[in-house]
Amino acid sequence: MKVETIKTKPFLDQKPGTSGLRKLVTVFQQPHYLENFIQSTFDSLETIEGPIKGQTIVLGGDGRYYNRQAIQIILKMAAANGIGRVKVGRGGILSTPATSCVIRQSQSLGGIILSASHNPGGPNGDFGVKYNIRNGGPAPEKVTEAIFARSKEIDYYKILEASDVDIDTLGESKLGDMVVEVIDSVNDYASLMEALFDFDRIHDLLTSGAFRMCMDSMHAVTGPYAQALFEQRLGAPAGTVQNGVPLEDFGGGHPDPNLVYAHDLVDVLFGENAPDFGAASDGDGDRNMILGRQFFVTPSDSLAVLAANATLAPGYRDGLAGIARSMPTSQAADRVAAQLGIPCYETPTGWKFFGNLLDAGQATICGEESFGTSSNHIREKDGLWAVLFWLNILAVKQQSVQQLMQEHWQTYGRNYYSRYDYEGVESDRAATLMSGLHAKLPTLKGKRFGPREVDYSDDFSYTDPIDGSVSQNQGIRIGFTDGSRIVFRLSGTGTQGATLRVYLEQYEAEASKQHLDPQQALADLIAIADEVAQIRTLTGMETPTVIT
Ligand code: VG1
Ligand code: CO
Predict the structure, then answer these.
(1) How far is CA 89 from CA 93, 166, 315, in A?
(2) Who is most buried in 108, 118, 228, 398, counting CB within 10 A?
(3) What are the structural domain ranges in the chain?
(4) What is the β-pairing status of strands 498-508 and 365-368?
(5) Of all residues in the chain, what percent carry a pLDDT higher than 90?
(6) CA of 85 to the centre of ligand 1 (A)
(7) What is the pLDDT of residue 484?
(8) What is the reported pLDDT for 18?
(9) Does the active-site annotation cover 117?
């Protein structure tokens, strides 16, 4: 088999976003596009990590359109670049958390995950590539910057001239000098879950006849994992996992587990004869949504509840070293940390910022308001982990989701919270809005809006406590003296136009005032957000596209 060296040209005009390179499938299908990114990645690794010759990497994806073709290209390029072994999920399937798990357990150099996460798939949808490092976590800025820099200089890539590899049969085969090892996509991950949670108690709960659950895998990657865990190992009846077959176009849906896109599940949990518990996950399985009967748990509250009850799960019996949350995530977890006497870290948006804290043993549980929670068991957010954690807690406490949540609010107070997304805003308009806000920042302090007074206003900057690296411009924050907050930032994961995210939060200590609808409780803040940022005027949109 011959290694071909193909001439190419620099190709990226923008640094890869919050989680890797995410573009339309049609962009990835352009000649040399995927190849350029993969070669830039290998070249950067050579500089940062040292020789990649003979190293092992993990490879898999969420099964979306172009997954299989991309896997074949990457295998041939890995072989041409001297990689020693690639562990590839059977059929090209590996969820993001499972990839992280396999990288760590096999002590691989890193892994390549093919996914655009919660973005729609299919020939007209999105595709994506993210590189994860040795600790199993997303590449930190240092690595993504190196990849971007290399992409601007690249002039050739290497690929093996060979026929396609069988990735559907477990076992090893050779591609040139490289070993291709097709691994079971589910086993290692499922065993890790078994080591963390009380499967006997969850089994009792799910087979008691008094508790019904429904898991919506949204035709994305978690189907096989959820079936193995809930239906096979934990005794839940067949059919508990819905939309459990990964499809290239996710069945035409948008595999984003929120109240808008996971409407089928929402209808079930808010309908007649609703089950006790519902959950959904996203394209690549790192996000989760938790629902009770007629009850929605905000991701920020979910993080706080898991932290407060962590010792009920065997894997966290000894307590937590610390909690970390992304900046726009509500401060509900901070209150739990304060009560537990442990630190709570505030990081920029994106899971990569938790990596150092987890590696250093300073945080055990982390979370983002965007339906992401996980712990130090891997270095990615983990949708099914959160679902199992909730089931473990409910099994021990024998409470409904709603009871558990209300009891939590009585103890810690309630952080009313909502996120407004304005998707598909013209990029120029979004930039104008953000720069307008920026210009106003210095004038806001002390300004009154009705009974509220601005306590601080800034553009969030983060200094990593472990390696001292600084990340600037991570979102505009306006904090009020009563503890409420408004945060504005532009998404780094969209592929068309800009997405403006507005995050609203207000604390309520008194139990008698904790029953409001969040939209009602936050109405004043929403009005202030519009007044300060001129959202409707500048975006030209009367209402957000998604409210969470
Ligand atoms: C969004 C979320 C962020 C999350 C990121 C990746 O980023 O807000 O919290 O880490 O997606 O999630 P942005 O820049 O669009 O706001 V996933 O499930 O795509 O890996
Ligand atoms: Co995801």
Answers:
(1) 5, 12, 26
(2) 118
(3) 2-185, 189-412, 414-547
(4) unpaired
(5) 86
(6) 30
(7) 95
(8) 59
(9) yes
Ligand 1-lining residues (CB < 6 angstroms): 18-19, 117-118, 282, 286-287, 326, 349-351, 368, 370, 372, 491-493, 501
Instruction: Find the ligand nearest to 349 CA.
Output: 1
Q: Are 458 and 347 in contact (CB under 8 A)?
A: no
Mean pLDDT score, 150-166: 93
pLDDT confidence bin for 492, thresholds 50/70/90:
confident
> From 2.60.40.150, 3.40.120.10, 3.50.50.60, 3.90.76.10, which CATH number describes the 2-185 domain?
3.40.120.10
User: Average pLDDT, stretch 458-465?
Assistant: 95
Give the tens place of pLDDT for each residue, 108-145. Answer: 999 999 999 988 899 999 999 999 999 999 998 889 98
For position 293, what pLDDT does the model report? 96
Cα-to-centroid distance, 287 and ligand 1 (Å): 9
Cβ neighbours for 457, distance < 8 A, ≥ 6 positions apart = 440, 441, 442, 444, 445, 476, 477, 478, 479
Which of 100, 131, 346, 370 should be mutated for ligand 1, with most atoms under 8 A from CB?
370
Residues with CB under 5 A from ligand 2 (ion): 117, 282, 284, 286-287
Its pTM stands at 0.92
Q: Which atom of ligand 1 is nearest to the CA of 492?
A: 14
Domains 2-185 and 414-547 alike in fold? no
**Which atom of ligand 1 is nearest the CA belonging to 119?**
19
How far, rounded to the nearest angstrom, does the alpha carbon of residue 407 sit from its chain's CA centroid?
28
Residue 20: Cβ within 10 Å count: 24
Question: Does residue 110 sit in helix, strand or coil?
Answer: strand
Say how many Å lie between the CA of residue 250 and the centre of ligand 1: 19
Q: How far apart are CA 194 and CA 388, in angstroms?
A: 10
Considering 95, 100, 115, 117, which one is annotated as catalytic? 117
